[in-house]
Design brief:
Elements: H1 7-16, H2 23-43, H3 70-74, E1 80-81, E2 84-85
């Protein structure tokens, strides 16, 4: 466990978040925050990459094609009104 986080800091963060923490929770969060900071310290050991990644377009090219006609688009709609889909009222 890292000593980078003190119980006072955890209480301060709790106050900022307007969360009342009892002593057990402060101890638990102190441990968890320390563990999280250790994970970030581990990331500092990962070597940097000095080259640009080779990016390639993996998407297919756009192709124009016929769309549904108006009647076919509304064919399976449970309700329509004036040639449009009709959905439930939202209040």
């Amino acid at each position: 466990m890292s000593d980078a986080v003190s119980p006072e800091e955890v209480r301060h963060v709790g106050e900022l978040a307007r969360v009342d923490l009892d002593d057990d929770e402060v101890d638990q969060f102190t441990q968890q925050f320390g563990d999280i900071l250790e994970y970030f310290e581990t990331l500092d050991t990962v070597p940097e990459v000095d080259r640009e990644a080779d990016l390639t377009n993996v998407m297919r090219p756009d192709e124009e094609r016929e769309s549904l006609d108006h009647e076919a688009a509304l064919e399976n709609a449970t309700e329509t009104e004036d040639g449009y889909f009709k959905g439930p009222n939202v209040s």
